[in-house]
Write a sequence for this structure.
């Protein structure tokens, strides 16, 4: 009986919380006249009001777990080798133990010593921007694990197209938890791009620290921490992360544009993140869909106000932004 009362109280509290949020949204204290139904903020509630006090991926059934450890105490010493050897498996979990995982060296180890000199976008058809995170893979980093990709060569293709990690348009998304990633002179730190794919796509960034420095990138000055093109049916959750983007002349450390596909409708949730410097979030309408992609950007600390605008040539304003409770530093 006591447990039943606790459950009832929790459900009632969640409903009251949802109702209060709905009322606040409807009052018009956000960008435009956006109106959010209780059903639309279920993902927010899953983050903010879990009964156990944490965020849970209820749609994931975790598969086999692999440990990557520099000291040889795990299953692998190379993150890239672990990813590549198990890329077709569903929902694997990769745990990164303490140490620095240098993707410059790991890519040469996997593809050959001349990888960076020979790299071009078309190397592995049909879609090669770099290592793909797919099939629901989850990477969990410990506090002393660092992934780096500092490119210091002269191959313009690397600086224009390559990103240390990429989404895949063919295989359902990924999760990164507590992953520390630093890179320089590449396209994005993580190119979350699926090019109008209709495959349902769920991506989570939780507690990550992601930094890109493109000051030395002579051909691609638009380096971003994460972002890209949404799919027809994407759900992106970005919570409790730290982003830093330096050496770029474009606004936004986190930048997404809508899908190029027909009837696209996605959801992005950005909550409790810190964006260093004079950077922040930018969301761009794009493509022919007249269904509305919804962005909830809440309780972040940023260096600029959130931007909502269109890609060059875009004519359909198909993104709604709820920009709520953010702190813009002076």
């Amino acid at each position: 009986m006591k447990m039943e009362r606790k459950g009832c109280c929790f459900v009632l509290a969640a409903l009251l919380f949802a109702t209060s949020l709905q009322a606040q949204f409807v009052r018009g204290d956000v960008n435009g006249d956006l109106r959010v139904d209780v059903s639309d903020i279920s993902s927010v509630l899953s983050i903010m009001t879990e009964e156990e006090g944490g965020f849970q991926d209820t749609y994931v059934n975790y598969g086999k777990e692999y440990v990557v450890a520099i000291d040889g105490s795990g299953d692998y010493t190379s993150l890239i080798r672990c990813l590549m050897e198990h890329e077709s498996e569903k929902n694997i979990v990769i745990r990164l133990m303490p140490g620095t995982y240098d993707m410059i060296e790991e890519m040469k180890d996997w593809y050959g010593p001349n990888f960076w000199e020979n790299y071009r976008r078309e190397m592995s058809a049909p879609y090669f921007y770099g290592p793909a995170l797919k099939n629901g893979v989850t990477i969990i980093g410990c506090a002393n694990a660092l992934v780096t990709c500092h490119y210091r060569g002269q191959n313009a293709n690397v600086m224009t197209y390559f990103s240390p990690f990429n989404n895949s348009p063919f295989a359902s998304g990924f999760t990164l938890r507590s992953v520390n990633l630093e890179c320089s002179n590449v396209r994005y730190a993580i190119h979350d791009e699926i090019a109008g794919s209709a495959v349902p796509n769920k991506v989570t960034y939780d507690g990550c620290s992601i930094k890109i420095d493109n000051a030395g990138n002579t051909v691609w000055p638009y380096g971003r921490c994460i972002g890209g093109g949404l799919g027809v049916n994407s759900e992106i959750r970005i919570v409790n992360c730290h982003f830093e983007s330096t050496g770029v002349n474009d606004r936004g450390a986190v930048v997404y544009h809508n899908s190029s596909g027909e009837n696209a409708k996605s959801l992005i949730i950005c909550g409790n993140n810190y964006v260093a410097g004079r950077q922040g979030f930018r969301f761009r309408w794009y493509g022919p869909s007249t269904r509305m992609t919804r962005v909830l950007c809440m309780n972040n600390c940023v260096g600029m106000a959130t931007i909502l605008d269109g890609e060059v040539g875009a004519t359909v304003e198909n993104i709604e932004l709820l920009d709520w409770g953010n702190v813009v530093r002076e």
